[in-house]
Design goal:
Blueprint lengths: L1 H24 L3 E7 L17 H5 L3 H9 L1 E7 L4 H10 L3 H4 L19 E2 L8 E2 L8 E2 L3 H7 L3 E6 L20 E3 L43 H16 L6 E6 L14 H6 L4 H26 L6 E7 L29 H4 E7 L8 E3 L3 E2 L3 H8 L17 H5 L9 E6 L13 E6 L2 E6 L5 E5 L15 H17 L6 E2 L4 E2 L3 H4 L2
Parallel strand pairs: 1-8, 1-9, 2-11, 2-12, 4-5, 6-7, 6-8
Antiparallel strand pairs: 2-10, 3-17, 9-10, 13-14, 14-15, 15-16, 17-18
Helix pairs in contact: 3-9, 7-9
Bound molecules: calcium ion.
Length: about 500
């Protein structure tokens, strides 16, 4: 009897200790796993109503595992290129409001291509800034700053691309991160290969602005950048695990952005199945990224952190399809039209999954739409930050009600995109434009010639039927809606070079 009491006491004691361990770990750890340039179909997880040939092609078993443990979002949106998405994530602002409408790199230098029809406005070419004295930046309180203030240990791993060179946020440590692994101003790595020193010189010094910083330990090794970043993330997590602070890990892979370089661990089967060499390399990068996700999930389980860690999986823009890929251009996100850089669905619809143990129902699906700036208030709500002190006005709405299945932000809400810029390549939906989605309807307004496209996404996900002429009332409604929003945030429009006038807002064209 005494022995039984002893074991009972031991059980209660360890039970209490377990409880207290969990209690001091709340609020939850948060991993935001952001992939670069990953398309909606670059996965074996089906995000459409049926499995597609691309779902058959790609192998992402760990995304399947995450989807089985969490909620899949079938209509999650970002912007069509890198920096606008990343700034929206950091600030909660729509690109029309934060004005970092194109990708950033060099201080005071625009990344816009040359155009004979329009001239882009003076957008915020220097990115986001935590101080308000730097020209052409958006001054904002960033998500990691707020998490830091709330007691989180904040870790940046991978691609930053928040701000131009020689401005504070080219270094993530200056905008809310406690640790920075490999992040700087550039939006791509010089090389994914450790054997090529990730684009650094043989002596380890930077070769150019694309040289990945801070991973000299791996130089000369036969290791892919995705693997090196994953090992570094776990090394940093080792220093915070079981300490007092919860952590925020912003795991922002450089993959699967160009240069399309093989992840040697995974390429062989794709070559054997007959993919051309570029597409085989691309698929191997996708699988290498997926391996990273799986390794982090394993790490959480091994360290008994899985139950108190939220994982959000997202991509920053649509899959690249206009250039640099094997096969037909503009075909790599089918059934979606076009790809990165386009206002069409292929440019902005993303694979998104959220695992939140104890809150999100396993293997669930949410078809309600949302957009990248929504991550800002959502992550704050997850972290228990109820009254954030921020200097900017935000557009994002928390999607926690969708995660809890208690409500939705999608009903009656319009989503907006604004890109008064020149990306470079041409193709469907590519070019300066503003667009709006309301319900199943989506309208794209092209700045160069001020023409419209109107699509019914419920019946035409591939955006093949322009209904602008057939549904003039709907066109007018959406143009008015978009115009009101653009005016409310004082959105910048380009200049029509033939007239020297600012391109009119969409409602004006239909008057
Ligand atoms: Ca990107």
């Amino acid at each position: 009897m005494k022995l039984l009491s002893f074991f009972l006491a031991l059980f209660l004691l360890t039970g209490c200790q377990q409880y207290e361990e969990n209690a001091h770990l709340t609020p939850p750890n948060i991993i935001l796993f952001l992939v670069d340039d990953m398309g909606w179909q670059d996965t074996s997880v089906p995000f459409w109503k049926e499995k597609t040939p691309f779902n058959q092609r790609y192998r992402t078993p760990n995304m399947e595992r995450l989807a089985a443990e969490g909620m899949k979002f079938t209509q999650a949106y970002a912007t069509s290129v890198c920096s606008p998405t990343r700034i929206s994530l950091m600030t909660g602002m729509n690109a029309a409001r934060h004005r970092v409408t194109n990708w950033t790199l060099t201080k005071n230098q625009s990344s816009d291509g040359v155009d004979t029809i329009i001239r882009p406005p003076a957008w915020n070419i220097n990115g986001v800034s935590p101080i308000d004295t730097i020209p052409q930046t958006v001054y904002a309180t960033t998500l990691p700053e707020l998490l830091q203030d709330a007691g989180y240990f904040t870790i940046h791993v991978g691609k930053a691309h928040f701000a131009a060179t020689e401005t504070p946020c080219e270094e993530p440590l200056n905008c809310g991160f406690d640790v920075n692994i490999a992040g700087h101003a550039a939006g791509a790595p010089g090389s994914y290969q450790g054997l090529e020193n990730f684009g650094n010189n043989p002596d380890g010094t930077p070769k150019n602005r694309w040289s990945v910083p801070g991973l000299s330990h791996y130089h000369g090794q036969d290791i892919h950048l995705s693997e090196a970043l994953t090992r570094e993330a776990m090394r940093v997590l080792d220093t915070v695990v079981n300490k007092e602070k919860p952590f925020y890990l912003y795991m922002a892979h450089y993959a699967v952005h160009i240069p399309i370089q093989a992840d040697a661990r995974f390429i062989q089967p794709y070559l054997i199945q007959g993919l051309d060499s570029v597409e085989a390399r691309y698929a191997s990068m996708v699988e290498g990224m997926d391996k990273s996700l799986g390794d982090l999930m394993d790490y959480l389980e091994t360290n008994k952190l899985a139950e108190n860690t939220i994982i959000l999986f997202m991509s920053d823009n649509g899959g690249l399809s206009a250039v640099a890929r094997g096969g037909e251009p503009h075909s790599h996100n089918a059934p979606l039209s076009s790809g990165k850089g386009s206002a069409r669905e292929g440019g902005v619809r993303e694979p998104m999954i959220v695992k939140w143990p104890g809150v999100v129902q396993a293997a669930s699906t949410c078809d309600d739409y949302l957009i990248i700036e929504d991550f800002f208030p959502t992550v704050l709500e997850m972290a228990g930050v109820t009254d954030p002190q921020i200097v900017q006005d935000i557009d994002g709405l928390s999607f926690v009600p969708m995660l809890r299945q208690t409500g939705t932000t999608a009903a009656g809400r319009a989503l907006y995109w604004h890109y008064p810029n020149i990306w470079g390549p041409e193709g469907p939906g590519i070019g300066p434009s503003s667009s709006v989605r309301l319900g199943d309807w989506k309208m794209i307004y092209y700045h160069r010639d001020q023409h419209f496209e109107l699509f019914d996404l419920a019946h035409d996900i591939s955006e093949t039927q322009n209904l602008a002429t057939d549904h003039p009332e709907k066109l007018k409604e959406l143009a008015a809606n978009l115009t009101t929003y653009l005016q409310s945030v004082d959105a910048q429009m380009p200049v029509d070079l033939s007239t020297g006038e600012t391109v009119p807002l969409p409602a004006k064209v239909l008057e």
